[in-house]
Amino acid sequence: MSKHVIIKKKINPFNKIITVPGDKSISIRFILLAAMALGKSRAYGLLNSQDCNASLKAISKLGVKVYKKKNYIEINGQGLNGLPFKNKTVINCQNSGTLMRLIGGLVCKSKKTIVLKGDQSLSQRPVRVIEPLNHFGVNVKSKNNKLPIEITGTNFLRPIEYKELKGSAQIKTLCLLCALNTPKDSVTTIISKSSRNHTEKLFKHLKIPIKIKKKGQYDFIKIKGGYQYSGFVQKIPGDISSASFFICLTLLSKNSKIVIKNVNMNKTRTGIIDLVKKICSSSIKIKNKKIKNGEEIADIYVKSAKKFKAINPDPSISSKVIDEYPLVFLLACKSSGKSFFKGIGELVHKESNRLKVCANFLRQIGVKVVEKKDSLKIYGNPNLNINKNITVKNFMKDHRIFMMACVAALTLDGNGIFKINDKDSIKSSFPSFITLIKKLGAEIN
Ligand code: S3P
Which CATH number fits the domain 4-22+237-439, given the four candidates 3.40.50.2300, 3.65.10.10, 3.30.70.120, 3.90.1640.30? Predict the structure, then answer.
């Protein structure tokens, strides 16, 4: 049985300055790229979570030495195609879609096989790596496009032209990592629907030959193979996805203020800020912008919102806010009017079917919604009152659903008691979530 929390009381007004743990996407990219660097790399502020630990364990199993120090993590990179792993090495990706989709990029040029496994949630998600890996000449054995799979690389990895039309940063990154391993100066072209671009930024920072042209919603990327980069040092900024729980907690709370310091503000990730500005514009401000390792960083100032506007965002924003939709839906519940979210079909393939799970949760708390395959209509109610007890089930260890439900329980009016299952799910991305929210005064049992 997974553990649950009980929330009986609303959070009292707070006024605090906080930081959130390191960005998960950047942390996992650091780990995988450090494994293929030549020599030692160091990361400060790497996220200490189950997904990142699974990634560290994965590179250790592939023969890379990892040193966990008090303030940093050091990885002794073996160079491109230098990983001395045994045939049929089993890698357990646990709950991490990013690790599952990216790891093929490290072994694509070896003739040895790796076996990928995952937890129950990951094992029901589409693996999506088969087609791009096959294109590069890599063999993948799978039953029905689900884990477990076996990946066997090749000595004859070839550059490709690939179209990534879903807006998946994970598949784009897999292609970038494979392209890096193709013969020297051979050119891979990736045409991809815009998605988070941390890998491209890191490649540029490491001087890996990459060229990107934006055309409308698409990025045309050209990357040359065979460029061996050296070990590097990275400071990982705070994760905007984790910060978002505190942004929404503050907006929905009464008479409260928060400053979240040193958060990654990469423009491919800040859809939550763009939408909050539309929903309750005067409640959020971004200050102290700077650039580190090619990534934008800033402090986010938030205060309680008085009013919430209904929104009808353009579907092109979807990849910029893909992990924050559950929170945006929650804000929409408090608006006066009907919000309409389109182009959100990708939510079906996350740690749980987030489209369905969110729609059901909103219905449970008394909000009218219309859910379709690719959209969600939410009929907001500024006077929303929850006076019955609510139990939130265990949704396949979906950390973001658990944390969103905690924010709802601590802020929405009414005397209903919330029982929220699956406390352990936070280990994937934000293990300190409950400790931090308690520091703001939340009573969670
Ligand atoms: C991620 C990309 C997104 C996101 C996930 C992390 C990444 O997934 O939902 O949490 O680090 O590249 P998709 O690439 O499937 O959209």
Answer: 3.65.10.10
